[in-house]
Fold this protein.
Amino acid sequence: MRDRGIIWMGLALFLVFLTLPAWHNLSARVSAKGPQPVPPAGQKQCVAPVEYMRTSHMRLLLDWRDSVVRRGAQDYTSPDGRHFAMSLTNTCLRECHSAKADFCDRCHNYEAVAVPCWDCHMDSKTLLGSVK
Ligand code: HEC
Ligand code: HEC
């Protein structure tokens, strides 16, 4: 049986191809369980209900930007009556999501979303000299 070697080699190649997605995921460090963002410790409620934040956090942030930059309004009243300063770095990142890498970045990297805000806005650890 001279073909035996070739058959084994074919089988081995087949196995490699079969498991290729798993290797790819491993090397890209993509978790099969999803992005698993880490919510901030000691906080129970975001500035709006979590269902709304999941689908529309980007819209809320852009509304905040327009309010501050175009209308000079600083204060945001949440649906449950709490008050927050409308600031990406000072409120979202400094007061709650100080571990941006474990929260925002996990989802955005997982979904391959390019978020241009960080070209100008800094996370809470690199505040000096930046847009707050
Ligand atoms: C080209 C630079 C630049 C980029 C990119 C940028 N911003 Fe801004 N942003 C600014 C500047 C400048 C201000 C005004 C800061 C001030 O008034 O103190 C501002 C203000 C804001 C504010 C209100 C003030 C505050 O402290 O946060 C929000 C909210 C905001 N931006 C959100 C965003 C979001 C969300 C993105 C990404 C989609 C983004 N920005 C991208 C430059 C930028
Ligand atoms: C649970 C997952 C998840 C978390 C956590 C998350 N995001 Fe997002 N974000 C997304 C997804 C998904 C999109 C893209 C949505 C789309 O394109 O329709 C997005 C888009 C955005 C955008 C719009 C970017 C653009 O220009 O289109 C901004 C701004 C943004 N996120 C800011 C943040 C900030 C700031 C945080 C952390 C405080 C955060 N996100 C945390 C999932 C997440």
Q: What stands out?
A: The pocket of heme C (ligand 2) is lined by residues 35, 37, 54, 57-58, 61, 92, 97, 103-104, 107-108, 111, 113, 115-117 (CB under 6 Å). The two ends are 73 Å apart (CA to CA). The chain has a mean pLDDT of 88. The CA atoms of residues 26 and 32 lie 10 Å apart.
